[in-house]
Amino acid sequence: MFEFNLFSWIILPVLIFAARVTDVTLGTLRIIFVSRGVKRLAVLCGFFESFIWLLAVSQIVQNLDNVVSYFAFAAGFATGNYAGMWVEGKLAMGLLAVRVITRADATGLIDFLREKKFGVTSVAARGIRGRTRLIFSIIRRRDLQCFQEAVERFNPGAFISIEDVREVRAGFLPPSPVSGVWRNLFQRK
């Protein structure tokens, strides 16, 4: 005869699900921090990621006859991947190299970007269809939408390529709005 136990069949699976969402989210962020050279946060995320994972797995092992916990574990993993990517997108950490290639006059775009405090380098070039203008800029990820909107406004149809940048030395980059304790956490060491 089946005996329903509220803790075993509902509360425990919910806790396992929440633990997995948390540990996988931290794992996603840890990987991002490692790839960007933010060692302190990577280490901190790694500690809590493994600790939470260990707690979740220990509950699975202690309740091997509880199939609902297996599904909660797997669903938490899947949800944690999504949550990690969502959180990373909201943090918008790091720098991007943006290249714009346009055949149209880019004077208005360049002036606007400089007015908005973007460092811009502009070079005349020749493409497959004739004369073009190359615009290079290193920007913060959180400023990408503003930059793209400016390009679309002044030079619709311009070719844009974007790459992650690990490190920048010299040149022009406005000071980071991150300050105090947070700046120390986000520094590469």
Characterize the structure shown.
This protein has 189 residues and is of the alpha+beta class. It is 56% helix and 17% strand. The protein has helices spanning 6-35, 39-62, 67-91, 107-115, 144-154, 180-186; strands at residues 95-102, 121-127, 130-140, 159-165. Strand 2 (121-127) and strand 3 (130-140) form a beta hairpin. It starts with 5 loop residues before the first helix and ends with a helix. The model is unreliable at 178-182 (pLDDT under 50).
SSE series? HHHEHEEHEH
**Main β-sheet, spatial strand arrangement:** 2-3-1-4
Structural class: alpha+beta
Query: What is the straight-line distance between the termini?
Result: 59 Å
Give the overall average pLDDT.
88
**Largest β-sheet summary:** 4 strands, antiparallel
Radius of gyration: 24 Å
What overall form do the CA principal axes indicate? elongated
Total count of helical runs of at least 4 residues: 6
List the uncertain runs. Answer: 178-182
Helix content: 55-70%
The total of beta strands comes to: 4
Binned strand content: 15-25%
Number of domains: 2
